[in-house]
Amino acid sequence: MSDAEYLTVEEALTAVLSGVSVLAAEQVPLLDALGCVLAEDVVAKDSLPPFANSSMDGYALVASDLARATTENPATLRVVGDVAAGTVLEVTIKSGTAVRIMTGAPLPPGADAVVPVEDTNEAWRDRERPLPEQIQVTRSVKPGDYIRHPGEDIEAGQTILREGHILRPQEVGVLASLGVSQISVIRRPKVAIIATGDELLEVDQPLQPGKIRNSNGYTQAAQIIALGAEPVQLGIAGDTETAVRQKLQAGLDANVDLFISSAGVSVGAYDVVKAVLEAEGNVGFWRVRMRPGKPLAYGTYHGVPYLGLPGNPVSAMVSFERFARAAIRKMAGHTQLERPTIPVTVQNEIHSDGRESYIRASVAPADEGVGYTAVLTGDQGSHILTSLVKANALLIVSEGVKKVPAGSQLNAWMIDWPETVFL
Ligand code: AMP
Ligand code: MG
Questions:
Q1: 167: domain range?
Q2: Any residues with CB less than 8 A from the CB of 348 and at least 6 apart, and which?
């Protein structure tokens, strides 16, 4: 029998998270920061908009000139200039005059409103069209109408984003509009992936008797990329101490922040990984009361955190989702570490063995338009990766529960939803 410790999922997660810390900040080009966590407050250098400008193609004018203007009784104004976006017109607008203006063009001095072209007798949008000498306006406007005011969105000197904020496309856009081309963020974790097992072949090798291809290495690299970290694929280590040690050394040479291995941690099979880690690090072998994914190894190798996942492809992926993902997100500076869970009504009866179970399911909005329903995606064997292909959620059956009747409510862990769904 093994000397493995028995832990709940919660206990294992707490232990894994306590072994990793937030990485250092680094300055990166703005686009490279997408998905990263801001490591500094950002103070606006400029106001946005930086100057008063028109929100419509139309005419800049003095609002009081249109006080009585209607369709039946239009106001006539003399056109004294033309201002396109990107240019500046120094002409001062006086009562009785107007300037043709394009969306985004700066408001000329003296004007206090814009009237859209649609409300004039010159309802075109063509820049090539000659400037009319005069226009007729068929409505009144209030001072400030169709004008975007300087600082309306952002005031210069304002703290616009705080340390800890996640950079999504909209944050990237705000930073770009403020002239920020380099930004300080928590650096992306570098994660080593090692597949252990004498039965493993590289994906481009033809199958041989008794051998299978190393799918875990790819699943894990994909999971790491999908969460914005950097995978370092160290390939396959056969079931010898020397092979495992060589791979771990390659990871140290690459300065990785975390080791993830698959297989070789279940009872009777883990001696190789165990021997290496015990000699040159420290490691605990756990049996987590979780299905799929019972065996889990956790420790350090030469000071670098180490997480040993089970070998079965579904167990490996679910354990990664449950433990590795949260650890990597913590290292990357995130505080929301887990994907959202939502309540769903399950359509099938579910049987469990009393361990906390993660059941592959497809979740969709209920026909009634309120809430969500879940249907199991097939064989729940820990080697059946295709039932994970059909799934967008893992239904969580609590510890101690052995039967869930159809029609029950369960929490669905939404494995395709980002943590930012409920900001
Ligand atoms: P083990 O934990 O070594 O007992 O492996 C459990 C199961 O996972 C066995 O059927 C292995 O062949 C399989 N397995 C281990 N490593 C991988 C891998 N990298 N890719 C796909 N299957 C694997
Ligand atoms: Mg094995």
A1: 27-49+156-186
A2: 375, 376, 406
